Amino acid sequence: MAKLSYTRDELMASHDYARPHERAGYKLHGGFLADGTYESPRVLNRWPAVKAWQEQLTAKGWPLIDATVQLLKRGNYPNIPQERFLLGHGIGQPLWNSLTITGVIEAKGRVLCDLEAPDFQQIIVEDISQTCTGHLHKGLLYAHGADEGGDPAAPEFGAHDAMWFAARDLLFGADAYPLPEVPESISRPDTGRLMPQLPAGFEQLILMLMNVLMIEVRAESFFSFCCEIMRDKDAFAGRREQAEEAASMVERIRIDEAIHVGYLQTTVSEMRSFTFKTVDGGTISGKDLIDPIWEGMVHWHAVTQADFSKEQTRDTIRAQLEAMPNGGKLFAEFDAMDDVAKAA
Asked: Which DSSP string corresponds to 171-228?
């Protein structure tokens, strides 16, 4: 039988690396195995644990929720033809900004290392000691934060923030453009109590987990975009070797992020199967509690936030193009390449 209970030390364990992960002047987390394969930090037992919890849940008749890019109603903006057009006209700042902002937001993820997660057993009827939900406060959240913004216990190793900056510097060179203004948050804003049946602290954590899961789903779309444009032989003709290395860096981040999608998808899916104790002394099924909130979270990230972000980016690009000779014509050409889905 698969192992279902883990200690914090087990969940934090990494592989023995044959070679460290050092690129573009950055000393980074993770490493390479003897066969040259990149391996993420702290996944020696995290991945087997998540897979075992998933198998346990599905064996009970509860499917995993969809956590793929199929949830997204909008493609990346600008899209690949638009990005080629911008780069072809010497406009690299929108991509530089995107890579920089992504790195800064990743750094903020380190807050998960300091999060004192409550034990969900307090508000769940069923025994959760052998579930993903039951291990959130046993290292899963800490490991996620360490992956994103660096492990406070090993500050000498850069994490995803540094990896994004390394990819950016490989593409454009260090300090190619001024640092952009970074949004305060890319999570769904607080709209008041959505689960008043639960104690506020537990509700906040559930909403945070859903928010972060959808951010990870959106990130997968950005990974695909980055790798395609970085490997486009015409997009970075003068820096092909560096651009290929930048794409490899993004692929390593992508490998690291897969475990985040895995455990968050498992947790939200498990919560649908549980019975929650309510503040009034009653109970409510997890499915009735979780499903409508998850549906709203998906729509906000997939449509509302995507449309808002596109509008801001489009305004920035318009200003840059229209400042050039024949700028109005250039912007019209750029706009004509927009193939964004119009789904509601």
From this structure: HH-TTSSPPPP--S--SPPP-S-S-TTS-HHHHHHHHHHHHHHHHHHHHHHHHHHHHH
